Structure formats: C-alpha cells, structure tokens
C-alpha cells in the first residue's frame, strides 16, 4: 500500500501505466465526470488496462464495510470531495473468505477488520493484491464523498 498526495505522484516511478493514471487524476475535467465506468486505456486485444470507476456515496459505519481484495488490478483510490477512512490490513492466508474471489469481477472478500486510515481530498491510496481494504468508512460522522477508483492492470 502507498498513501500520498497527487503532488508527489510523479516521484513514485511505478511505471508508465501508473503515470498515466496519475495524469488522469490530475486533470480537473475528470472531477466533473458522472458516477460510472470510464475507460482510460485498452490493449490491442480489447483488455481494459486502465479505467476509472467514479463513485458518489455516503460513508458508512466501519462494521458495514467489508475487507476486499483484487488480483489482476491495483486500485488507486482518490477522493475528489468529502472525507472517509479506508480500513487496511495485509491479506494473509489466515483470513476467512466470506465471498470467494471472482476472476470476472476481480474481487473477493475476507472476514476481519482493518486499521482505519483517514483519507482526505487530494490524497490517494495505491492498493496492491496483498492489501485487504475496506473503503467507505465514516470518520466519525457520515459524509458524502465523490471519488475515483482507478484500476491499473498488473
């Protein structure tokens, strides 16, 4: 997991796909996009190598937020508006699977709680396959957030 702000994103040197994702997040026009799926880059075979899921929602009680994980894509979670916390913990074999991994949707869920890490506008989290995470947590009161989850094919 990496936590930082967009001001420092170019210092990370995570490769060209991540650089393109951070450039997309820095474009002010993208903050105005409606909620939904937005393709940023596709491979010649049609595979979406980079896309953003823009979401708007009210944060929830941490107990209502499940730990999720991904295998094919890394998440760059970025807040345009609002405040939330993301629960995080390492994805380890001792965590009970509550919803098996779906290769089609690139998501699975495990039991447990993560450490709540505050998340503010302009900040981002990069979450890799070894990072179980539970986004959308209130801090402490529920607020409305607008965020982008940029999915980067690994």
Characterization of this structure:
- With 154 residues, this protein is mainly beta.
- The protein has a single domain, classed as YhcH/YjgK/YiaL (Jelly Rolls), CATH 2.60.120.
- It contains one helix and twelve strands; from the N terminus they run E-H-E-E-E-E-E-E-E-E-E-E-E.
- It has one helix at 16-26; strands at residues 2-5, 36-42, 48-58, 67-69, 73-81, 84-90, 97-102, 107-110, 115-119, 123-127, 131-137, 144-153.
- The strands form three sheets. A six-stranded antiparallel beta sheet has the order 1-10-5-12-3-2, covered by helices on one side. Strands 4-8-7 form a three-stranded antiparallel beta sheet, with no helix packed on it.
- The radius of gyration is 15 Å and the shape is globular.
- The model has no long low-confidence stretch (mean pLDDT 97).
- It comes from Candidatus Spyradenecus faecavium.
What would a concise description of this structure say?
The chain has about 150 residues and is mainly beta. It has one helix and twelve strands.
CATH architecture: Sandwich
| Sheet with the most strands, sense and barrel status | 6 strands, antiparallel
Residues in helices, as a percent range: under 10%
Mean of all residue-level pLDDT scores: 97
Name the CATH homologous superfamily.
YhcH/YjgK/YiaL
Name the structural class.
mainly beta
Name the CATH class.
Answer: Mainly Beta
Parts with pLDDT < 50 across at least 5 consecutive residues: none
What is the spatial order of strands in the main beta sheet?
1-10-5-12-3-2
């Amino acid at each position: 997991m990496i936590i930082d702000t967009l001001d420092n994103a170019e210092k990370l040197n995570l490769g060209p796909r991540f650089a393109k994702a951070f450039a997309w997040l820095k474009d002010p026009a993208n903050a105005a996009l409606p909620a939904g799926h937005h393709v940023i880059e596709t491979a010649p075979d049609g595979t979406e190598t980079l896309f953003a899921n823009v979401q708007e929602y009210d944060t929830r009680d941490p107990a209502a937020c499940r730990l999720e994980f991904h295998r094919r894509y890394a998440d760059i979670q970025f807040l345009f508006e609002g405040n939330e916390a993301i629960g995080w913990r390492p994805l380890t074999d001792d965590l009970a699977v509550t919803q098996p991994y779906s290769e089609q949707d690139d998501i699975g869920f495990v039991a447990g709680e993560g450490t709540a890490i505050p998340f503010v506008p302009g900040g981002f989290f990069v979450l890799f396959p070894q990072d179980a995470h539970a986004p959308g947590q209130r801090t402490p009161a529920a607020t409305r957030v607008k965020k982008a989850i940029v999915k980067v094919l690994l």
